[in-house]
């Protein structure tokens, strides 16, 4: 009869794993970019409390990139200004990111011409924003060799951009807009709206006169009361879980 193999790693492997993870955590902390520790990057502006997580994606044209305060730039996020490195883009910034912006892991913001992202915008992972698109006017020339088209992009404050969304050149997104995951946005998007699809279209909108139309299908979340402790929150969660589990059993007994 074969002897059972020990499925747990040896003490040497456990120590090696801990050392690797501790070393990688140190590398991430040391490699991140902040105003106090900008490393080799010389951004046009890098606000207080803003951090670019390590490893970074492609970053160039940083003198023309202005980042506001208290932003979180996830790992492998690409930020570029201009078509290529080492160009003189003039006196004005090309890429402006407001205060409190979160760019999710693997996102790209490609600002060959002006891109503006308002304050308090939250981006899911792998969002792609670009002010440039390939042109295909000449049918006899490879598309990659034709001069691209460029149009400014603006995203208003307070927006939520879902995972994998694509924001195309010329997009003008209003304030407090939800862009659904995987949406492809072009043109103008009004304030306080929800857009989805490819190409994206408005599927819900709020106005002062009519509220949300179509109406929301779920109730608004209830904010956590001030002064409540983590222990009280856990107790409430445990009580809610117990009530949920008890209801089906009671219903079956009545049936």
Automatic annotation (TrEMBL):
Keyword Acyltransferase listed: yes
InterPro entries in UniProt: Hexapep, Hexapep_transf_CS, Hexapeptide_acetyltransf, Trimer_LpxA-like_sf
State whether keyword Nucleus applies. Answer: no
* Keywords noted in UniProt: Acyltransferase, Repeat, Transferase
Residue spans making up a coiled coil are none
GO molecular function annotation: O-acyltransferase activity
State the GO CC annotations.
cytosol
The UniProt family comment states: Belongs to the transferase hexapeptide repeat family.
For this entry, the protein name equals: Acyltransferase
């Amino acid at each position: 009869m074969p002897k059972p193999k020990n499925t747990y790693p040896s003490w040497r492997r456990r120590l090696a794993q801990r050392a690797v993870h501790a070393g990688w955590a140190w590398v991430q902390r040391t490699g991140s970019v902040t105003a106090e520790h900008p490393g080799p990057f010389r951004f046009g502006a890098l606000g207080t409390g803003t951090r670019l997580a390590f490893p970074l994606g492609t970053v160039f044209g940083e003198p023309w990139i202005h980042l506001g305060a208290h932003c979180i730039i996830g790992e492998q996020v690409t930020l570029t200004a201009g078509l290529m490195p080492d160009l003189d883009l003039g006196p004005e910034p090309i890429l402006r990111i407001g205060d409190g912006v979160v760019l999710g892991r693997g996102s790209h913001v490609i600002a060959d011409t002006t891109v503006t992202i308002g304050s308090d915008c939250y981006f899911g992972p792998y969002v792609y924003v670009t002010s440039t698109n390939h042109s295909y006017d000449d049918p006899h020339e490879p598309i990659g060799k034709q001069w691209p088209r460029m149009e400014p992009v603006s995203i208003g404050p307070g927006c939520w951009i879902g995972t994998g969304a694509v924001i195309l050149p010329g997009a003008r997104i209003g304030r407090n807009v939800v862009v659904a995951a995987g949406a492809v946005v072009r043109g103008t998007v009004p304030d306080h709206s929800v857009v989805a699809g490819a190409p994206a279209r408005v599927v819900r909108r709020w106005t002062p006169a009519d509220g949300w139309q179509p109406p929301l299908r779920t109730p608004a979340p209830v904010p956590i009361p001030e002064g409540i402790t983590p222990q009280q929150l856990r107790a409430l969660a445990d009580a809610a879980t117990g009530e949920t589990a008890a209801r089906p059993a009671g219903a079956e007994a009545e049936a």
